Known about the structure:
By secondary structure, the chain is of the alpha+beta class. Helix content is about 25%, strand content about 25%.
Amino acid sequence: MTPITEVEGRRVALSNLEKVLYPATGFTKGEVLHYYATVAEVFLPHLRDRPVSFLRYPDGPDGQIFFTKNVPPGTPDWVTTAEVPRSDGPARMVLVQDLPSLMWAANQVAEFHTHQWVAQAPGVADRLVLDLDPGSPATVVECCEVALWLRDRLAEDGIDAYAKTSGSKGLHLLAAVSGSSSEEVSEYAKQLALEAEEAMPRLALHRMTRSLRPGKVFVDWSQNAARKTTAAPYTLRARPEPWVSAPVTWAEVEECRSPGRLAFGAPDIPPRVQDYGDLLAPLLTESQSLPGA
C-alpha cells in the first residue's frame, strides 16, 4: 500500500522509498525525496511560475529514461497547471509552485527542466542561458576557461552572469534579462558564442557538429529558443551517481584545475546552501536589458 504523507496540508503519495535509484552509491528514492525537501527553500524560487518538463528515470539512470511535458495522468487537482503555446497547438504543463507539488513531482523520479520564460509571458525571455558542453578530452576545466571569457564579455554589455554545473560534464552560464523575446535572446546568445569561437578558436565552438567537437567546448546558445528547456538549478540528474546541477562561485570557476573540483552530489548541496545561501538568488531580482533593447 502506498504511504500517504501530509505536506503543508496536502496529502501526497510517496512510493517505493527504499528503492535504490543510484546503484553506484546505494542512494535511494527516499533519499531523493529528502534531498528535495531539504533544498526546497532555494529550489522552489527557480521553478515557480515556470512550466516544467520532467526527464523521468523511475528505475534509475540505467533504466528507461523519457521526457514528460504534458500534465501526467493522475496529477492531483491541487497541483497548479498552465496552458502554454506549442507549434502543434496549446498544451497544459505542470507548475511546481510549493512544497507539496515539489514532493509530488519528486516522487515521479525526474530531472526538472524549465523554459527561459514564465507561464504568464510565454516566449518573453527573462533568462539567458549558455550551456558549455565539453567534447572529450576537454572537461569542465576547459568549460571554466570559456565561462570566464563569456562572463567578462557579458559584463561589457552591462550583464551580470552566474554559473552552475550542469550536473553532468559541463557548465551553465545564466543571466537575468528583460524586454526581449526568446528569439532576440537566442540571436544575442549566438553572437556571444561566435565571438567566443573567434577569440578562442582552439577552445570554443559555436556549432554542434560532432566532428568538430573533440577537445573543444561547444557553446550551446540554442537553449534560449522559446520551445527549449534547461536543467533547473539544484535538480538531481539521471547520472550514475546523484549529481546535482549546482550553483558555483566565480572563485571556484577561476580555481578549477581538475574535473572533480566542480562535481557536487546531493549530500554536498545542503552544506553549500548553509555556507553560501542561493548563489543564483540575483537572477530572481535582477532585470538587465540586452544591448540595443
